[in-house]
Design goal:
Blueprint (H helix, E strand, L loop, with lengths): L1 H5 L1 H13 L28 E4 L1 H10 L14 E4 L34 E8 L6 H12 L4 E4 L4 H10 L2 E8 L10 H11 L3 E3 L2 H7 L2 H10 L7 E4 L10 H7 L3 E5 L9 E4 L3 H8 L7 E5 L5 E3 L5 E3 L1 E7 L2 E7 L6 E3 L2 H6 L3 H14 L3 E8 L11 E2 L2 E5 L21 H19 L9 E2 L12
């Protein structure tokens, strides 16, 4: 039991799996979702059904006469929804504008006759995941256009933006390689921003937050609990740590590149020795590196009596906080329940993620937080039962939006589907000039009906 509680052997296996992609719990390549061919002829298949959505009309009325009006061709209190396999009439139903998955943005570039406006565009290198299908459905319900800027069309989209033939109201970026100016998705983010659109997340904020050393210093200065850290800049030669540095880091460290992602280049449980640090830096000598004390995490029981690592991935989306258990050994997610939130005193998860959002100016990200198996410093505000919380992986701005039913190491389907609904709602609010962040809310797993403990 003691060996398992240390978490190190399993965590090392998980890291190896992420790098190779061939072990359970490791990174998995998204699988293309099969799609049925579109029916022939205009309006073939299933007829559109009118669905009343009074909340949309009420929100427009509250926004006042200065807000944008309803989509061309209809009022917002009644919108047309096409069942799976059906086709929208008009411009968005044009076969040249649809993918086999049912959404806009075909593989071949289109010739635009005039300036076109896209309500929500998703920057994603491949199409076909369940999230994108749910997002398209949610946008269709609200009368919004939705396109996926996959690898075959991203350059054409960027050129059309720069030429003034296209306007994107909201871009959800899920793939830009920050720090690489030649990356087409980095350029797409800036093109949308420079043309007056909203990018989730803002490219300047995301590029800064993506640099782990820069973010570490911002969080540390604000008094947030981060692991003791030594930063080695890329121009600094390899060196031995000082006696003071070794004292604060302990006998086992985590070595990670500042611009790394997906656990690439991360070394766990290394001795704080010059040779070990030099070998880790050989992964990329053009990057800065963080040498951090390896935090020993506690274990807690979930509401089904299963013992879990006291480690969480907490999602933040425009003021809404969605905490999930996450295993550093298997990468398994589980949505946190209200009972777990109360019984384990987990409110600091919400406080910490909200503070990270405030300091980094990020609107959508996840952060990793663990409860350490050590006594907390007196009067620290971030603790539970006398043990401290630590921020571990500060900001992940391109969250995993695969689904657990298809990928073992992915978030629960209900969480991903909820995000699809929220992004469509945010795009609708942006279209009508309404504020995107109104409240600070917690979205927790629903308890079983009739649960007497609640």
């Amino acid at each position: 039991m003691e060996e398992r509680r240390s978490g190190l052997p399993g965590r090392l296996r998980a890291v190896s799996a992420r790098e190779t992609g061939d072990a359970a719990g490791g990174a998995e390549e998204p699988e293309a979702r099969s799609a049925a061919p579109a029916p022939e002829g205009p309006g073939a298949g299933v007829a559109a059904a009118a669905v009343e959505v009074p909340a949309l009309a009420d929100a427009v009325a509250e926004a006042g006469p200065g807000s944008a009006g309803p989509p061309a061709g209809g009022a917002l209190d009644v919108v047309s929804v096409v069942a799976t396999g059906g086709r929208l009439d008009g411009l968005e139903g044009d076969p040249a504008r649809r993918t086999l998955a049912g959404g806009a943005m075909g593989g071949a570039p289109r010739v635009r006759r005039s300036r076109e406006v896209v309500d929500l565009c998703v920057g994603q290198r491949a199409d076909g995941e369940a999230f994108l299908g749910w997002l398209r459905d949610a946008c269709a319900l609200r009368g919004l256009s939705c396109e996926v800027a996959h690898a075959d069309v991203v350059e054409d989209l960027r050129r059309e933006l720069c030429d003034g033939r296209l306007r994107v109201r909201v871009l959800l970026d899920l793939t830009a390689a920050w720090g690489q100016e030649e990356d087409p998705y980095v350029q797409l983010c800036y093109a949308v921003k420079d043309c007056g659109g909203r990018v989730i997340d803002d490219p300047d904020a995301a590029a800064l937050a993506d640099h782990k050393a820069a973010t570490h210093h911002r969080l540390e200065r604000a008094g947030l609990p981060v692991p003791p850290t030594v930063v080695l800049r890329r121009w600094m030669p390899d060196r031995s740590l000082t006696a003071e540095e070794r004292q604060i880091l302990g006998d086992r460290v985590v070595i990670k590149p500042a611009r790394g992602w997906g656990w690439r280049g991360v070394v766990l449980g290394a001795p704080p020795e010059r040779d070990a640090i030099a070998r880790a830096r050989d992964h990329d000598r053009t990057d800065d590196y963080l040498i951090q004390r390896q935090i020993r995490y506690a274990w807690l029981e979930d509401d089904e009596g299963r013992e879990r690592p006291a480690w969480w991935r907490v999602f933040y989306l425009f003021g809404e906080i969605v905490p999930c258990w996450w295993s550093p050994e298997t990468s398994e997610y589980r949505h946190v329940s209200l009972r777990e939130m109360a019984s384990h005193q987990l409110l600091p998860l919400a406080r910490l993620s909200a503070e990270v959002a405030r300091l980094t100016r990020m609107d959508f990200f996840s952060t990793e937080i663990c409860l350490a198996d050590e006594p907390a410093v007196a009067d620290t505000p971030y603790q539970a039962d006398g043990r401290p919380f630590y921020l571990i992986d500060y900001v992940n701005d391109q969250c995993d939006l695969r689904v657990q039913s298809q990928h073992k190491a992915a978030p629960p389907d209900t969480v991903v589907r909820h995000f699809a609904e929220r992004f469509a709602e945010l795009a609708w609010r942006e279209r009508h000039g309404l504020p995107l962040e109104c409240d600070r809310t917690l979205w927790l797993r629903r308890a079983a009906d009739g649960d007497p403990s609640l």
